Amino acid sequence: MPDFALEKELGAATGGAGPIILGVDEAGRGPWAGPVVAAAVWLDPARCPEKLLTRLDDSKVLSAALRARLYAELRDCAENGGAALGIGQAGVAEIDEHNILQATLLAMGRAVAALEQRAGIRAQAALIDGNQTPALSCPARAVVKGDSRSLSIAAASVMAKVTRDRLMEDLAEAHPGYGWERNRGYGTAEHRRALSDLGVTAQHRRSFRPVRELLTIS
Length: 218
Description:
- It is a single chain.
- Helices cover 48% and strands 15% of the residues.
- β1 (21-27) and β2 (36-43) form a beta hairpin.
- The protein has 9 helices and 5 strands, in the order αββααβααββαααα.
- The chain is α/β, with parallel strands linked by helices.
- It has a 5-stranded mixed β-sheet with strand order 3-2-1-4-5.
- It is globular.
């Protein structure tokens, strides 16, 4: 289960009293449609409810119902001063222009900036899920499988996943027939059939091979 060991280690390296160490993660690198969403989270170990901390984990191993509850509890914790949250995203046009990796790093940088602006704080350092780091105003450390190791990254994983899922549900209403409310834009058989039958929307990533190939055939 994730804990605060990495936050404490990085905090000791950066120095200062009570350093603010963020966790950053993303959702939506693999889908054929929709934006990539990132979240940045700071957790105050002294003020976060133990009930919240003991249930946080990589969002992929949590049920949708538990993710939703944790999302709401993280927001409540932020309102009570025990956490700070930031969301950033990069849209389809940016994904197609820069590639999905660079768009993901853009979204992460925007999430950190949003957190700092909203909470009125400056991060001393950030733990980034994965093996690459975005350009930030503070030092950053990449952590492979960080969402299963760091509580801050696990919290960011939940925030990013729930935010993007709800965004895709809204996009599904605007673009019915693709099943985005279920497949979240991933390349399921349902999505593939809809692409063939209904065509490509403005929310499809044209740089992704299945979409690009369909456009080429058309």
